[in-house]
Amino acid sequence: MRYVISYNRQWVLVCEIMGKFIHTEISIIVIYFNNHLLTLKTKFKIMNDLLKIWVKKISTNDANKVAELYHDEGLLLGTFSKIERHGKELILDYFENLLTSKVDVEIVTQNIHKTDSYYVNSGFYNFILKNKIIKARFSFVFIKTRESWKIISHHSSVLPEDI
User: Fold this and answer.
1) pTM for the complete prediction?
2) Span 49-158: which CATH code?
């Protein structure tokens, strides 16, 4: 285990556990006093798993659970839609239509870029619908809010046929 404490407008603790980084804001400092550990409640964010959380919510076939991951002002350019979907209402509508039958997603590749307040993940994934594999590419932009990370922009499109 490796612990790094840094200061950037707030105290932040980053722990690397088995190759995964866990990011937490420290609301109370951890203190050892006379061999007693004093700690305060913290909020953990598993940054490397944001896309996996989206995939897991898709597999529930619950449009509300998927839409909860999007920012109130989020944008979705969905794989199976010809319109831009601004805001949760239109995003929820997209997933209500998509998830009328069982849908699974498998991540093929990921390219991750992070800052303190944004997290971008782009690559390829496969949709599995009615025993058919649809190859697609994606870009997710996550924004840090006070409560959690939310999807502010999501683009997904079917891969073009070989030319």
Assistant:
1) 0.71
2) 3.10.450.50
